[in-house]
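Sequence in, structure out.
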Amino acid sequence: MTVNSIPKRRWLQFNLRTLLVATTLIGIVFARVSYLSRLAVFHEREAERLGRLLRQGDSGLIEFDNLISMIEHDSLAAMYRKADYRPWTTVDEEQAKVPEISTDEMGLTIDP
């Protein structure tokens, strides 16, 4: 066999292993984006639901707790939406937590 009889490798010819690895990596990235999107939608819906409760609601501490939860869900939804465009980042849910405030600090009294 001479040097000229060896078939030339085409420019875009890949191994099956390379194709499987690339497909797996792309699948992992799309799965992560889908996961982040679903969590963002969940937190957006929870914030909307709590907002509706607040608009129709009674007054009291339950309403204040709903407000705190709505703020937390809203900020979590924003963080997950931001992570949609950077799927390699992580979302720290502790950053969305609103510090607890006691009723004494708010100046509220609870009637027994």
